[in-house]
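Give me structure tokens for this 327-residue protein.
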Amino acid sequence: MSLDKLDLNLLRFMLTLLEANTVTEAAHRLNLSQSAVSKQLARLREQVGEALQDPLFVRDGKTIKPTARAKALEPQLRSWLQSSCEMLRAEHFNPSLDQREFTISITESAFPVVVPLIFPLLAKNAPNIKLHMVPQTHECFNKLTNNQLDFLIVGRDLDKRTRAPWHVSDLPNFPKQQLYRDKNVCLVCKTNTDIIENWSLKTFLSAPQIHIWVEGSTTWLLDWVLASQGHYRDKSAVVPNFDSAALLAQHSEMLFTCASEFADELSKRYNLEILPIPIELEAISYQLLWPKAQDLEPGHQWLREFIVQQCASLGQPNPNPTKSERK
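Here you go.
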């Protein structure tokens, strides 16, 4: 008989009979009537016994006794049942013992903010877990879909004036949770006292500015809002990343704009003054995304909850995301 036609419950029934020796005891263990057990025995002989050309159980007075073939099958039946139970048992995750490697991509403006919060305690709580950091590219969302990436941290605007795909609602349909919110500020070298002391929208617009490539673009919400008001920013330099912008600003009269948490980190490493952006913009939302296939995986759940917990000091993320936020 082929496996697809076999009632696998009969194998569990057979193991019970091997342990019970009597129909009465088997009926008690299975919570069945003796008549129902006799019918199951008949089905067992029909499906399994005929395939093996063995009756499996024979009567001996008031008891039934297994044949030699049935006794020989008992260890295999126990092994099969144990394997089946283990396969269906919920996976237990122990962070102190787990040795997996998770791949994560973090947008540049969040990297020096989030990473110092994660790594020290991760090394303490899960010493054998490794985080493989990869650059953020336009392929990141595809990699999430294909489970080539475990986590993605991106920043998206909450301001309704932003254009697609830069609003938080434009993010693809992955499970997600907000890590923190931030605001935009400006950075300028501390030696540029004229700009600092006369800071205003007019000063901001007249100052030479550094534009940064972020996810393939140098224009963003700030430029679109200014344009709607008839203003335009100077574009004295275009650089590939924020550290390049910070180094350039430190040695020039140029300024650039970035998120405040990131600006705090840059101002510690460079001789830069933080100034409030002289135009009203809504906050930036930094979101943690992960593959749908990993949503219920215990290790994945533990690590993302750990990341969210460590980032709680940065703002007020929603600890219980709504269904719409998790889509």
